[in-house]
């Protein structure tokens, strides 16, 4: 998998949490819960992030947590049900992804495997980064994002 090492800044985010098995249900959470909330809060046209809080290979499916996030300014008043978090600054391996929601787990598996074999993975949060002009092809379900994994430099 092709990737670049990038130094990313810290990002303040507002997020809504999904809890349960990863897979198609995460896409439904974005569509039915997060995106309507994002629109209602006037937060469209901003970079969004998907953060898996648990490793599904070691966490029971019902206990897996995933945060759908949107970048917000330092003075944006985050209100319930949203919560505040910060994606830390640091060096990340950033790989482009283009595919469907069903393709995401395999892409993460390939990327983790490659970086593990190269001995580059560092402690920290991994996330999907979606552009401010994010769009999904309504016919095929294909979308683009970046997969970001913290790395040692």
Description:
With 153 residues, the protein is of the alpha+beta class. The chain has a single domain (4-150), classed as Multidrug-efflux Transporter 1 Regulator Bmrr, Chain A. Helices cover 20% and strands 35% of the residues. It has two helices and eight strands; from the N terminus they run E-E-H-E-E-E-E-H-E-E. It has helices at 24-40, 104-117; strands spanning 4-8, 11-19, 48-52, 65-71, 83-87, 90-99, 127-130, 143-150. It has an eight-stranded antiparallel sheet with strand order 1-6-8-7-3-4-2-5, with helices on one face. The chain is globular, with a radius of gyration of 15 Å. The two termini are 19 Å apart. The relative contact order is 0.24. The mean pLDDT is 95.
Q: What features would you highlight for this structure?
A:
2 helices, Reg_factor_effector_dom_sf, globular, eight-stranded antiparallel sheet, Multidrug-efflux Transporter 1 Regulator Bmrr, Chain A, 153 residues, alpha+beta, 35% strand
- From N to C, what is the helix and strand string? EEHEEEEHEE
Molecular shape: globular
Q: Kindly name the structural category.
A: alpha+beta
Q: What's the CATH superfamily, by name?
A: Regulatory factor, effector binding domain
- How many domain modules? 1
What's the count of strands?
8
The largest beta-sheet arranges its strands as: 1-6-8-7-3-4-2-5
Helix content: 10-25%
Output the number of helix runs. 2
CATH architecture verdict: Alpha-Beta Barrel
In the predicted model, the low-confidence regions spanning at least 5 consecutive residues are: none
CATH C-level: Alpha Beta
Radius of gyration, taken over Cα atoms and rounded to an integer in Å:
15 Å
Give a short account of the largest sheet.
Answer: 8 strands, antiparallel
Strand content: 25-35%
Tell me, rounded to a whole number, the average pLDDT: 95
The CATH topology, please? Multidrug-efflux Transporter 1 Regulator Bmrr, Chain A
């Amino acid at each position: 998998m092709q990737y670049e090492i990038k130094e990313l800044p810290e990002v303040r985010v507002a997020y809504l949490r999904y809890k349960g098995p990863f897979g198609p249900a995460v896409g439904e959470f974005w569509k039915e819960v997060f995106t309507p909330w994002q629109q209602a809060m006037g937060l469209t046209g901003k970079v969004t992030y998907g953060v898996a809080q648990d490793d599904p290979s070691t966490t029971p499916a019902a206990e897996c947590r995933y945060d759908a996030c949107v970048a917000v300014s330092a003075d944006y008043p985050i209100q319930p049900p949203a919560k505040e978090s910060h994606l830390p600054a640091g060096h990340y391996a950033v790989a482009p992804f283009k595919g469907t929601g069903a393709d995401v787990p395999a892409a993460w598996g390939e990327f983790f495997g490659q970086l593990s074999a190269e001995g580059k993975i560092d402690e920290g949060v991994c996330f999907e980064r979606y552009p401010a002009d994010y769009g999904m092809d309504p016919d095929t379900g294909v979308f683009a994002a970046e997969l970001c994994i913290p790395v040692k430099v």
